[in-house]
């Protein structure tokens, strides 16, 4: 189905556009529903020349290595862009994208986006900012997998989740809003499920893990020290 002007306004990239610009985009913007676990893009797929964005729900971006080992590169909530090579590059999906929850995906034809950029150049700057951030995060992931100890990577992952997903202050500590099951964490930092469980037990005085993926940070200072590689448990 075609996106509405109101739906386009919920995408951060377009939130500052006036209604006339949004109406022009709306005619070539489509929203498609995906169920939890459904594959949105396969790694290596030839992508149509469109901008892809998460309108609602959450997706996983993951990569499979030559050994068959799967790593979750990142999870993206509503409002985020993905599959940048569809706009810039070889038009091949660099990773597999899966619906982590029931979600809606917004796509906009590249020609319509270029028209918007001609009239509103700051949109291009916002796209460049997003892509630059993604490259930096990918570099950090690769560097971490190659050089950091597993417990350091775990602490960094928890910190990043707290920063990007938000937290709530409780009487016991800082609760990460998103649910992060063991399997997702393990595949995101390149360890086994069993090692992930063991590391959380090792850090139980600093971080508490509850069934279902609820994470409570009990000691932020020590978690930060582990993430810097300056504290061991």
Query: CATH-wise, what's the superfamily of the largest domain?
Result: Jelly Rolls
Q: What is the rounded Rg?
A: 19 Å
Give the CA-based shape.
elongated
Elements, N to C (H/E) = HHEEEEEEEEHHHEEHHEEH
Number of strands: 12
Question: What is the fold-level CATH name, i.e. the topology of the largest domain?
Answer: Jelly Rolls
Terminal CA distance reads 52 Å
The helix fraction, in percent, is: 25-40%
How many domains in all?
A: 2
Give the name of the CATH architecture of the largest domain. Answer: Sandwich
Strand content: 15-25%
* Main structural class: alpha+beta
Task: Explain what this protein looks like in three dimensions.
The chain is elongated. The chain is of the alpha+beta class and 233 residues long. The protein has helices spanning 5-9, 19-26, 110-119, 122-147, 150-165, 182-189, 193-202, 220-227, and strands at residues 29-34, 39-41, 50-56, 58-64, 70-77, 81-82, 96-99, 103-109, 167-169, 174-176, 207-210, 214-217. Helix 5 (150-165) packs across helix 8. The protein is built from eight helices and twelve strands. 29% of the residues are buried. The strands form three sheets. The protein has a four-stranded antiparallel beta sheet with strand order 1-8-3-6. A four-stranded antiparallel beta sheet has the order 2-7-4-5. A four-stranded antiparallel beta sheet has the order 9-10-12-11, covered by helices on one side. The mean pLDDT is 83. The longest helix has 26 residues, at 122-147. Helix content is 39%, strand content 25%. The N and C termini lie far apart (52 Å). It has two domains: 5-145, Jelly Rolls (Sandwich); 148-227, Winged helix-like DNA-binding domain superfamily/Winged helix DNA-binding domain (Arc Repressor Mutant, subunit A), CATH 1.10.10. Strand 4 and strand 5 (70-77) form a beta hairpin.
């Amino acid at each position: 189905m075609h996106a509405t002007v109101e739906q386009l306004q919920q995408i951060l990239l377009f939130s500052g556009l006036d209604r006339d610009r949004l109406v022009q985009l709306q005619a070539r913007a489509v929203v498609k529903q995906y169920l939890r676990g459904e594959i949105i893009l396969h790694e290596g797929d030839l992508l149509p020349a469109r901008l892809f964005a998460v309108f609602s729900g959450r997706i996983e971006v993951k990569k499979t290595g030559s050994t068959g080992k799967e790593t979750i590169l990142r999870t993206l909530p509503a409002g985020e862009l993905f599959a940048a090579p569809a706009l810039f590059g070889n038009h091949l999906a660099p990773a597999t994208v899966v619906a982590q929850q029931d979600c809606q995906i917004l796509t906009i034809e590249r020609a319509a986006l270029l028209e918007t950029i001609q009239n509103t150049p700051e949109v291009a700057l916002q796209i460049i900012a997003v892509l630059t951030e993604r490259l930096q995060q990918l570099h950090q992931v690769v560097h971490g997998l190659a050089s950091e100890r597993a417990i350091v990577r775990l602490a960094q992952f928890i910190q990043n989740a707290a920063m990007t997903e938000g937290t709530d202050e409780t009487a016991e500590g800082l609760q990460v809003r998103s649910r992060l099951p063991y399997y997702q964490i393990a595949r995101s930092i390149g360890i086994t499920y069993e090692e992930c469980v063991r590391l959380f037990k090792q850090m139980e005085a600093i971080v508490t893990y509850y069934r279902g993926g609820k994470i409570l940070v009990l000691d932020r200072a020590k978690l930060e020290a582990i993430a810097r590689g300056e504290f061991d448990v």
